[in-house]
Amino acid sequence: MSTITPPPTSTFWETAREWLHQRDGVLSRELLLEPSRFGLGQLPSRLQPDAVAQSTCGFCSTGCSLQIHLKNGEAIGLSPSGDYPVNLGMACPKGWEALTVLDSSERATVPLLRNASGQLTPVDWSTAARTFVDGVRAVQAQHGPDSFAFLGTGQMPTEELAFYGALAKFGLGMVHGDANTRQCMATSAVAYKQAFGFDAPPFTYADFEQSDVLIFIGANPCIAHPILWERVMRNTLRPEIIVIDPRRTETAMQATQHLAIQPKGDLTLLYGVANILIERGWIDRDFLESHTAGFEEFADFVRDYPLDRVVRETGLTATEIEKLVAAIHQGKAVSIWWTMGVNQSYQGVRTAQAIINLCLMTGNIGRPGTGPNSITGQCNAMGSRLFGNTSSMLGGRDFTVAEHRREVASLLKIDEACVPSRSSWAYPEILEGVRRGEIKGLWIVATNPSHSWIDQDGFAALREQLDFLVVQDMYATTETAAIADLVLPAAGWGEKDGTFINSERRIGVIRKVKRAPGQALADFAIFRLLAEAADCGAMFREWSTPEAVFAILQRLSIGRPCDISGINGYAMLDQQGGIQWPYPASSTTPTTERRLFADRRFFTADERAKFLFDPVRPLPEVCDAEYPLLLMTGRGSVAQWHTETRTRQSAVLRKLSPSGLALEIHPADAAAVGIEPQDQVLVTSRRGQITVTAFLTETVGRGRVFLPMHDPRVNQLTHAVFDPHSRQPSYKDCAVSVTSADRAPRSAGPDRLASYPSKVLR
Ligand code: SF4
Questions:
Q1: Mutate which of 33, 60, 503, 640 to test ligand 1's pocket (most atoms within 8 Å of Cβ)?
Q2: Overall CATH class of domain 112-177+380-567
Q3: What are the CB-based long-range contacts (under 8 Å, 24+) for 615-620?
Q4: Is 186-374 assigned to CATH 3.40.50.300?
Q5: Ranges for all domains in the chain classified under CATH 3.40.228.10
Q6: What does the alpha-carbon distance between residue 241 and residue 742 come to, in Å, rounded to a whole number?
Q7: Which CATH topology does 12-102 take?
């Protein structure tokens, strides 16, 4: 690996976007291996810790463990845990800066209530709690019990997520609630549930080191999951690493093969690959006959995807496709990994299931180094999926199944009548309900849809429809908090206890190592306060501490695929380096690394995995003469996290991020409309127009452009289409035009962000 020189000044980042892009993969490794060169993890010499606490990182789903250095019980610094089976002594820049982002002038420190003149003004907690309850009750009384909904997150510990969902549905009578995991992981959850009978990612991180063929589809772990990429780098089998991605991403640059597929050509490719494998008999007949259902129908179906069609529709050559097929056939342990490039698609569920189908056909499941493996996004997306009590009920149950409702009511010792018998609307359906005037109140916790929701201006218009908007967040400055009627100040990671579940199903503990600023409270404490104010405190008497709730969740998990009843409290999680579910009371297996389906028994009624498939659908928004380019969005750099609400609070992370918003465009496409490097350009879709800097690069192919998702303007452009099974937004395929800002007429007015808050404030 070549040596690189760290940037001398911040202006470097403003002028050397290309360097950053070309080297970010390398940069990530340098940051991981020599963090002090970048100003990370330096503890003032006058401070010597007197104790250490272990805590799971609160950014991404990798679930790294951090050692928090304490003095007099307060955090004074951190370093990555060396003996934790996830990160093995490493942390990415976000983890190193996890404490820094807590110290910010943008923190919400006191409850804020919008007064008669439209200003958010401080109130005490008692007033805030009473206002919350009165507001919920008033909306429900006027518009019906379903008219107040909640939108949560994958960023809170599992105990808080469970409390949030239980309070909203069982205590406050809400029916509709969802989480921002809809934006990243709903597709994988539905794909697994339909194919395996339960939302069950089968892998363990050791699989990165035990595969001889690793295929990444729509995934860029080099910057999105850098510690997991490091696990790939530790693989001593000299593996074939194949990246299927329209962009030449940082990961693609380091792969042994990069298939620069047409955007959304992935499903056609996967069906075509399956067809060739079947034609040649390169399948595991014994496994198929004994452990799966629906293979023969699938084999018939994929005959419609011969090689010439796949070449035509994917933009790949026959040689590239044949090479991929051969790698899968010749691999002894083939693993296929995906993230948002698959999930954030209008046909994401069937694409994820096409990956599952390939692994089933070739017997690449349940063995070391194998698996159809979805890498999650947020630190506790997996906790949200199992215990969020939104689209599924606590423990992966179904609200519409009477037996499940009875079980939960009995285990929680509550009246069964409090448990809704209908499924919740998904996130887009809730927003559609707002548009129709059926949802008149929203309680939003730890998420920022004004920035992150697809077709952002659509969300801004919806704000006008709401009678009461409550935002509960660490920061008072998010785009969504700025337009709330009531802001409840919350503690963040490091200021509260609980557990997260990472991508490989590992439950890890987070610790309170710092006091929250001002009057901010842990979300857990806020839920207790609101329950008392709403006169349903008695329902939650047993929910006294996060660890008490963990015990309740263990009880709720008994007999479920995610049974964790054998875990002996947080202390055991600390001692074992986290524990992967399932871990039932009868468990005697070693806990360090475990994958699912080693016994070839799936969670369906007949214990067989299902083949699921549908014909490929065309792009919902095709390019034409007016909008000739396809816009893809994705992660910008290793130092940025989602809407940057937290990462922008760190000077180090800001320095490691590109300043300004750059559009990746192929030089030939740029030349066709007279755009030079660093030109200001207008990017226009059917929904909006923004001004950005042109970055000419061949990392995107002809006819495609790319924008990082972190800038608040990007979702003014995206097109609100959704996967029909998961209802996940399809962020990566809208048609745009790109013109010089100096020469082209502005077709949709100036960037709308500047006028956004005033437009919606009442
Ligand atoms: Fe935290 Fe993810 Fe970075 Fe690990 S890779 S330190 S979990 S942000």
A1: 60
A2: alpha beta
A3: 615/304, 616/267, 616/268, 616/271, 616/313, 616/347, 617/346, 617/347, 619/263, 619/264, 619/733, 620/346, 620/719, 620/721, 620/730, 620/733
A4: no
A5: 186-374
A6: 43
A7: N-terminal domain of TfIIb (2.20.25)
Ligand 1 centre and the CA of 90: distance in Å? 9
Average pLDDT score over the chain: 91
pLDDT (0 to 100) of residue 533: 98
Q: What does pTM read for this prediction?
A: 0.91
Digit-coded pLDDT (tens) for 424-463:
999 999 999 999 999 999 999 999 998 888 876 677 788 9
Report CA-CA distances (Å) from 371 to 76, 216, 412, 501. 41, 12, 36, 19
Give the ligand 1 atom nearest the CA of 58. 1
Establish whether residue 222 lines the binding site of ligand 1, counting it when its CB lies within 6 angstroms of any ligand atom.
Answer: no
All CATH 3.40.50.740 domain ranges of the chain, comma separated, are 112-177+380-567
Distance 87 CA to ligand 1 centre (A): 9
Q: 368-381 pLDDT, tens per residue?
A: 999 999 999 999 99
Using DSSP, state whether 741 is helix, strand or coil. Answer: coil
Which pLDDT value is given to residue 126?
A: 97
- CA 698 remoteness from chain centre: 28
Atom 1 in ligand 1: residue holding the nearest Cα = 95
Q: Which CATH class is domain 629-760?
A: mainly beta
